[in-house]
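Subject: Sanity check before I submit

Could someone independently write out the structure tokens for this chain? I want to compare against mine line by line before I put it in a report. The sequence has 549 residues.
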Amino acid sequence: MKHSNSHVPNMIIYNARVHVVDQMNHVQEALAIAGNKILAIGTNEEILSLADGQTQLIDAKGHSVIPGINDSHCHMWEAGMLMEGIMTFGIPSIKELKEEVRKRVSAMKPDDWLQGGSWIESQFSEGRMPTKYDLDPVSPDNPVVLERIFSTCVANSAALKAAGITKDTPDPKGGTIGRDEDGEPNGLLFRSAKQLVRDAMPSAFGEDKFGSGEQITLVIQRAQDEFLKYGITSVMEAGVTPSMIRAYQRLRREGNLKLRVNLMPCWHGFAINEDEDFSDRLIKELGLSSGFGDEWLRIGSLKMAIDGGLTSKTSLRTWNYVGENEIKEFPLRLNLNFLNGWVKEAHDNDWGVGIHVMGDVAVRKAAEAIYAAHQVNPKDNRHQLIHCYYIDKDVMQMMKEARMIFAAQPAFIYNEADGYPKLLHEAQQKTFLPLRSAIDAGVPVSMSTDIPSAHHNPFWGMYSAVTRKGMHGHCIGKEEAITVEEALRAMTYGGAYMSYEEQLKGTLEPGMLADVVILDRSLIDIDEEDIRNVKVNMTIVDGHIAYQK
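---
Independent answer below. Compare away.
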């Protein structure tokens, strides 16, 4: 039995498969919690002998007990916005999407906005994007805006009218208004054109719409409750603005944070921070750096972005998409001429950076910038390459040497892979998201959902990391599959390591924070196809039951 001290436990979980997630992947039978810490792990007999008349005993019935899941790159506040409206992930057809919209607006007042999203065209049996012509018949009076998983949204005619978008509206810089054969807007808004309709929303995505931040706190609280149902006890909130930071501080101050949060402030590559003076002051004048905070709310890395998305064909790469004979140019999200200097400045001021990169060129540029800063001034700053779809062998070596973290989202395989044959050549499918190669090379890996770019069910990501399959069965790059144990470690310890908290959480060793999840089945020898069916029976945060099915 491993034991941290002589306290009497207030909670014991027994008859379990306790996945300690230590270096040896030990599995124990029982676990004891005292206060907000793991007290001991061991056999049923050993752990139950610690109980007294006040100890709560929980029979896990042979199911797996795992550390709290760390969604180490997501957008919880935006997830809350979608949950307030309509979550479109996994709806199998545009016909059924229309029916869901009809149901929602039928219960709304005229002119009220319906927001939602997290769709991708490959999920629909029609094999195309929805347009205003699909939405208008079921939402004639209510503005409707549904976000694609990346770079695009669809708006109905009422929303376009509210935004003042007509046949004569020019495309904004860095964006495109989708049009039909007559030049009329068809409801699809690409890249920066999305902002046209966002600006018309009464209380949505624009930071200036929130005022005191009350709206943000409400949607965060909604998302927290939903995340706990999936065993998520920690998140890295990626790309936060000052008003979001204030909202999270308010929740912490009022005792309303139900899970642990790391905040990644927006930096270069985001429109809100194109003011270079602001970006400079952020890291030089405040005196803060990555890791500042407590066990509930911390400052994480700075969020940067180089390129766009894979399915939007805005990834910076050396290869062509299916059906294209050349690489089409598109606006990058930052000036690459300044990348090395920005990264070095952050690195020297004790900030980690998390850089959004998808194509192989973007990955290389980010890795080279971090590697150069690390070579001159070696530090353990836990820099991250986020998404990082394509990694050349020499880049993988740079990542290992400079201790970069591969911040991966295998959930993208689950919701995108079935459409890849029409998008990616076989070579790009085979080498996509090289988890196996990274682990074998000694590169630290974390796994997250990046909701709303994927669903917040972390076990769908685990399923795809292990099987390399999309939701409809298309398999890509089986050679890059990892084991259930490796995926579990990346979902728990990987995120804790990324946020400098591996001594606090991420494993179930004695002395660690008591963030614990009881599943509805055992992960030991689980059939690969059954992984996506895993549910959570109980989520414990800080030693208290936060969710119970």
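---
OP: Matches mine. For the report I'm noting this point. The first strand starts at residue 2 and ends at 3.
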